[in-house]
Amino acid sequence: MTTQNRSVIIIGGGPAGLAAAAALRQQGVEDILILEREHDLGGILRQCIHDGFGLTRFKEALSGPEYAARFVDTVQQAGIEVMTDITVTELHADRTVVATARSGRYVFKAQAVILAMGCRERTRGAIQIPGSRPAGVYTAGIAQAYMNLKNIMIGRSAVILGSGDIGLIMARRLTLEGASVKGVFEIQPYPSGLPRNITQCLDDYDIPLFLSHTVTAIHGTKRLTGVTVSQVDSSFRPIPDTEKEWTCDTLILSVGLIPENELSKMAGVLLDPRTKGPRVDEHYQTSVAGIFAAGNVLHVHDLVDFVSLEAERLAESVGDYLKQAPADEEAVPVEADPELAYTVPQLVRADRDLTVSCRVRRPLNRVRISIWQNDQKHVTRRFRRAIPAEMIHLTVPKEKLVPGEPLKVVVEHE
Amino acid sequence: MNKTLTCVICPNGCQLIVDYEGVTIQSVEGALCSKGNQYAEQEILDPKRNIASSVRVTGGKAPLVSVRLTGPIPKKKIFDVMAEIRALSVAAPVEIGQVLITDVSGLGQDVIATKRIDRI
Questions:
Q1: Which of A294, A309, A358, B40 is the most buried (most CB within 10 A)?
Q2: Considering the entire predicted model, what is its pTM?
Q3: Which residues pair with A258 in a beta bridge?
């Protein structure tokens, strides 16, 4: 089998892959190939038909397909090469990419590989709900795909476990399509989705949200007939004698997303246990030279606008990398405050403008989040309220950064 | 009277505290931009929302085309609009932005396609 040499291979044609490709071409990179396993480009946006995308980027409220179409059009007008219906089956540390399609098996060798595979949903197995295994239990994204892409109505009366944004969006979608949504049950004492989605997806339709509750049993043999829901204590253990039975034919799980890592692991890319995605420096380069990552494969985002921006920052660095692999400044760690769930990047070389993305672990009122290096405070942002559902960004220009000195992201209560 | 609202205009999701008497807004606190103030007024007087759904397609590469409204409609009219959307079926091809229902339910907004669906 002949190996095709390529400058850049992008694995995944969703929002991250598309934005990276368009930005690389704008920098004059000619030889770019996007590999997409689905038949169409656009990734998860194709099924996110609700509006509210693109407010920061395009200053208008678009639906997911419209947001994707803007990038697909740019990529097509730029003449960037795309292969669809092709699945990457191997990725090696020397940047060999093996892919399989109906037309055969392909082997590529790339100067740079961009990981843009997005994330996957946690399933019933991942959260181990006891009970029988009837039909009618769906992850929120699968329910969304059935209803919005395949025209398959998934049920008439639903219970939703988890208050992630897709679950909230599906609560509204099911209600608009005439189903009854009995309630949304969240194990945490606070919602995991965005406040605006609590308002416009639940409150608008009088769908109750139960915090500190979880599904403790699933009933039914052929089709789901109902679920048992219990209150949980502060360690998420079900509290005895709080069980309540809910009759329903559908259970939707919106219990978290995890970066897709199969290929990253195969290439030996080091993962961060906090983000569950690759560990990167501010160039979005992973622990393997020439392999970069952005978007939901790196850490799960709440807004696609931020995915596009991250992929464009990545593209800037990939463009430089192709010209000449930079004489590496030593990478030093970014230390995250205990109040933060994580930071991206996890390492810095202090040789380009820096954007740090992070999330708080729990809702916090009146805090200042700052980036420090030695005794120097580079930037501070104040928040009336910071919540885990909303990713926070802090930027520091290159001039302020000192190579070789660790950074600290500090949370202070006011 | 005081009411706390979550602005749904953008992902900031500002918590707004609205002080009002009947239909007169006395003050809105907590908005990061002027759209929040407008939203709070609208929300007290006559809440409006945009909605998204899908419409059946015949002869297309996909069985459905996603749609949305060109602008928000009164919240209490959402199910009237949904009934019109559900009754509709269109023939492929469909273009992004194509108007599928003009002035839906007489509310001054159109139902437009948000995806391109080619013919089989």
A1: A294
A2: 0.94
A3: A120
